[in-house]
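Summary of Year 1 activities. Much of the first year was spent building the evaluation harness for sequence design. The harness presents a backbone, in tokenized form, and records the residue chosen at every position. We chose the following record to illustrate the format because it has been used consistently in internal testing since the harness was completed.
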């Protein structure tokens, strides 16, 4: 008699529909029943997550357990792997995938995601951009580190409509040197990945200029907003 596929047992544990013959098998088979009991307990604790539990408590325990199962499995690889160990881990893995969806549905996906290399942005520097002309609302700029990459965010409001365009620059303190980081959407602000290895201390001034469609790629010298990054 062949046992049930671990994925099938995981689905039964999650209360998904199963073939009557599969249910019949589990009822009469001790190993499959044991596996189902275990997966059902995990699925039940995953389902018991209430809004007070998130984002960490219950999911962390579940993921610790799943991780332990997978780690145990990988440690057993050099030794002869018994079919039982393998079956169980596959079942846990199938369940992990399902529970992952369940957790995702509760809006606690960050618990899972936080296990990968720190994807949350880190604030590196920020600046208040003061109006130089035509604008009454100050703007803000910040540099965030995301996945090892520095990204400049610019948020503006009340930039006047123009038949030219707005461009964002990083300037040396004395304006002797500058880098164009991109065109700014006046209504939405902008997000500009910075060149790797840029030294913000050498280019600490965020400047937004009004440019004309004149084919001249250099700074128009018509600056609208400017501020110095505090690193
Ligand atoms: Zn069986």
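For this record, the design step produced the sequence shown next.
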């Amino acid at each position: 008699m062949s046992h049930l596929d671990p994925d099938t047992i995981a689905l039964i544990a999650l209360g998904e529909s199963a073939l009557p013959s599969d249910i019949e098998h589990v009822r009469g088979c001790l190993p499959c029943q044991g596996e189902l009991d275990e997966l059902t307990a995990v699925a039940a604790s995953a389902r018991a997550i209430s809004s007070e539990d998130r984002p960490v408590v219950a999911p962390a325990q579940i993921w610790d357990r799943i991780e332990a199962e997978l780690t145990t499995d990988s440690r057993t690889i050099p030794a002869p792997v018994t079919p039982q160990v393998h079956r169980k881990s596959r079942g846990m893995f199938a369940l992990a995938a399902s529970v992952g969806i369940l957790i995702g549905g509760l809006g606690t996906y960050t618990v899972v995601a936080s296990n990968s290399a720190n994807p949350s942005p880190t604030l590196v520097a920020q600046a208040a951009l003061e109006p130089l002309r035509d604008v009454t609302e100050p703007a803000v700029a910040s540099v965030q580190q995301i996945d090892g990459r520095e990204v400049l965010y610019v948020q503006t409001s009340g930039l006047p409509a123009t038949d030219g365009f707005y461009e964002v620059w990083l300037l040396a303190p004395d304006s002797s040197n500058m880098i164009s980081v991109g065109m700014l959407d006046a209504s939405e602000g902008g997000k500009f990945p910075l060149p790797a290895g840029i030294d913000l201390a050498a280019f600490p001034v965020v400047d937004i200029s009004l440019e004309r469609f004149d084919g001249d790629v250099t700074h128009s010298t018509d600056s609208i907003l400017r501020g110095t990054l505090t690193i």
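Residues 3-4, 25, 29, 31-32 surround zinc ion (CB under 6 Å). Quantitative recovery figures across the full test set are reported in Table 2.
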